[in-house]
Amino acid sequence: MRFWSYFAIASARYQTLLQYRSAAFADLMTQILWGMIKIMVITAFFGVSSGEQPLSLAQVVSYIWLGQALLGMLPWNMDHELVAQIREGGVAYELIRPLDLYWFWFCRTITLRTATTALRSMPMIIFAVWVLPLVGLSEWILSPPADLLTLGVFLISLLAALALACGIHANARRAGMDLVRRRCQSAVPAGDHGVIRDAGTPAPVF
Questions:
Q1: How much of the chain exceeds pLDDT 70, in percent?
Q2: C-alpha span between 80 and 75 (Å, rounded)
Q3: How far apart are CA 114 and CA 9, in angstroms?
Q4: Cβ(185)–Cβ(83) below 8 Å
Q5: Which residue has the higher pLDDT, 49 or 139?
Q6: Which of 10-14, 66-70, 138-142, 201-205 has the lowest mean pLDDT?
Q7: How confident is the model over 46-60, as pLDDT tens digits?
Q8: Dist CA 38 CA 32 (whole Å)
Q9: Is the pTM higher than 0.85?
Q10: 159-188, pLDDT tens digit by residue?
Q11: What is the three-state SS of the chain?
Q12: Taking CA 204 as the corner, what is the angle to CA 198 and CA 206, rounded to the nearest 5 degrees?
């Protein structure tokens, strides 16, 4: 019974977040631009490098596109409704629900991460797989997985990363209940994700 309560909360929140298509389109264009800039830089480095690289250019390009497409999963932004509830006392209504507060926030965070990521990643994958070859940029495409095993490991890793990101976000919000200033509430995820995410360029390249 409790599982379906969490599912209903996540479903309703997901439908609400999917309505922000204009913002998602702006994010999509920004991420495509930054992805292409990063690829230009990496391509220039590969062009002048004479040594053997741990990853091929195609692998690094795919890594960059996946990092751009899945950027919304990182716990570096906040749920502004939860922040407002914590600051204004509305969180008291959440505490009297017959649900565990942590898992309630965890489900909200899952929808926040997956909805924004879905709106951005699917068009970006289409662009990186099918549009780039049409304009003569075949070297910049997102390469498919080598085999089904690789795809399976990637999906498992993706689910684990989503769970970790949502856990960090939910714990930061719970810690925020003991803090007053909004800046302090966002400092935990914002300060840590840049160190641990490694989403810009794969570490082996360096």
A1: 73
A2: 13
A3: 14
A4: yes
A5: 139
A6: 201-205
A7: 888 777 778 888 889
A8: 10
A9: no
A10: 999 888 888 877 777 776 666 444 544 444
A11: CHHHHHHHHHHHHHHHHCCCHHHHHHHHHHHHHHHHHHHHHHHHHHHHCCCCCCCCHHHHHHHHHHHHHCHHHCCCCCCHHHHHHHHHCCHHHHHCCCCCHHHHHHHHHHHHHHHHHHHHHHHHHHHHHHHHHHCCCHHHCCCCCCCHHHHHHHHHHHHHHHHHHHHHHHHHHHHHCCCCCHHHHHHHHHHHHHHHCCCCCCHHHC
A12: 90
